[in-house]
Amino acid sequence: MPDPSSKTVMPSQDASAAALTLGASSESKSLGKPRSLWSDAWHDLRRNPTFVISALLILFLILVAVFPSLFTSTDPKRCDLIMGNNGRAPGHPFGFDRQGCDVYARVIYGARASVTVGILVTSGVVLIGGFIGAIAGFYGGAAGSLLSRLTDMFFAIPILLFAIVFLSGFPFRNIWTVVAAIMLVGWPSVARIMRGSVISVKESDFVTAARALGASDMRILARHILPNAIAPVIVVATISLGLFIVLEATLSYLGIGLPGSTVSWGGDINDAQASLRTAPHVLLYPSVALSITVLAFMLLGDAVRDALDPKLR
User: Fold this and answer.
1) Rounded distance, CA 181 to CA 48, Å?
2) Which tens digits make up the pLDDT trace of 104-137?
């Protein structure tokens, strides 16, 4: 006859086994699958104060550039000569420039031109340089050598000098001509980085496996190589965006970039030279706005580089 005590022991043993199984299952779920490069980078970026501060600042700048009327109701082109070079006044926290225009309104509206040029040039440079670099790195051979030599030829052209010569030949200038002048010779650095990254990735085992399964070259390049080779390009593009904004401001400062009818930080800095001693605030505010914008993109690029570079982990 079976012992009654054994009936009370068996359920507890089953409960213990079930608890162990449940614990192991929950532990395996908590561990999850290994994070990819992008999820791991995002995990690090969210905890990086440099990235958070620079990203919030850039989002604010984009908001100012897209919706400047949210921050000022003053027309930046409405001037009153009587108020020329005057200091602060109610509703005019930055004072007035030589023409009597509100400096605060011009700083706010000047963000639109600089940020627009920077984003458009960076997008074009990444598309052109990324395509040429990816093709040169993936196929190699005579086509790769030809594209590499073409990249070297454009890389030897100074961007500022080319932009000055290029824009001098236009009877009229606008944002698109400035973007074209910078973009035409700004892509070689991206092409070089993309080419080297594609060359290092295309020898990986997963690329060999995809080729063995009969995947086409375009599918291998688009689905397997580019997602794993684009990280260095993103870092360079983020840092270069700030440099392109500086380049646009330099061209406008020289009087060759955006026309005087377009409000830009570079143009305002140029106009402020005449009243530097009597009204230094006219030069201060657009210069500070330009410096903060460039610094934000530089810090964002450094944070992204630290997150995407496996050697720094």
Assistant:
1) 36
2) 999 999 999 989 999 999 999 999 999 999 999 9
Q: List the structure tokens of 169.
A: 């030949």
β strands within 200-244, DSSP E? none
Q: Which two tokens stand for residue 17?
A: 């086994």
Amino acid at 99: Q
Identify the pLDDT of residue 125: 94
- Specify the number of domains making up the chain: 1
* In a domain? residue 82: yes
Collapsing DSSP to helix, strand or coil, 96 comes out as strand
Mean pLDDT within 57-71: 92
Structure tokens at 164: 């000055």
What was the pLDDT predicted at 34? 57
List of residues 6+ apart from 94 with CB closer than 8 A: 88, 102, 103, 104, 107, 281, 285
Indicate the length of the chain as a whole number. Answer: 313
Asked if residue 138 lies in contact with residue 198, where contact means CB atoms within 8 angstroms, the answer is: yes
CATH number for the domain that contains residue 243: 1.10.3720.10
Q: Tell me, yes or no, whether 244 lies in a domain.
A: yes
Decide if 292 is inside a domain.
yes
